[in-house]
């Protein structure tokens, strides 16, 4: 019996978005690397009397951004897996809301996923699958 829903499509889209988010983490790795470069350049220049090292700020921002993007990417891929197996309704709902905070692709994917998840037959599918 084939059900008329878009859960498989959203599963693939969440997987693509998770992979793109993990690829975006490379930007923050570059940012932290730039911070290490600036830190070493400032330390080599002994004539510079700076009150603080601006490279530390770049390293901190890069590290925090890397942690956030990798976490969101992994959780998005996990939501894709749960959508495929029709499990963990609340987790998928929460990840759709978080997805709305991550740019235009995330907004579109999150809103359409929330619309699909709010349908009574979809809720019933998740309840029957527990």
SSE map:
Layout: H1 7-44, H2 54-85, H3 89-99, H4 103-117, H5 120-128
Helix pairs in contact: 1-2, 1-4, 2-3, 3-4
Short description:
The chain crosses the membrane at residues 12-36, 56-79, 91-115. With 130 residues, the chain is mainly alpha-helical. It contains 5 helices and no strands.
Describe the fold and architecture:
This protein is mainly α and 130 residues long. It contains five helices and no strands. The chain has one domain. The two termini are 19 Å apart. The protein is 81% helix and 0% strand. The longest helix has 38 residues. Keywords: Membrane, Transmembrane, Transmembrane helix. This is Tetraspanin family protein. It comes from Winogradskyella vincentii.
Would you count the extended β strands for me? 0
Beta-strand portion reads: under 5%
Overall SS class: mainly alpha
Helix percentage range: over 70%
Unreliably modeled segments: none
Mean pLDDT: 89
State the helix count.
5
Rg calculated over all Cα atoms? 21 Å
H and E string = HHHHH
Main sheet specs: none
Coarse shape = rod-shaped
User: Any idea how many domains?
Assistant: 1
Distance between the termini: 19 Å
From the structure above, extract its key features.
130 residues
């Amino acid at each position: 019996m084939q059900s008329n829903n878009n859960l498989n499509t959203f599963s693939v889209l969440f997987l693509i978005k998770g992979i793109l988010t993990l690829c975006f983490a490379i930007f923050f790795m570059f940012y932290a690397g730039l911070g290490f470069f600036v830190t070493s350049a400032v330390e080599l220049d002994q004539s510079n009397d700076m009150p603080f090292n601006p490279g530390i700020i770049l390293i901190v921002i890069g590290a925090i951004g890397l942690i956030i993007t990798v976490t969101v990417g992994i959780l998005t891929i996990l939501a894709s897996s749960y959508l495929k197996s029709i499990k963990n309704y609340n987790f998928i709902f929460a990840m759709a809301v978080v997805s709305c905070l991550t740019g235009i692709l995330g907004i579109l994917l999150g809103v359409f996923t929330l619309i699909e998840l709010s349908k009574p037959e979809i809720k019933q599918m998740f309840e029957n699958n527990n």
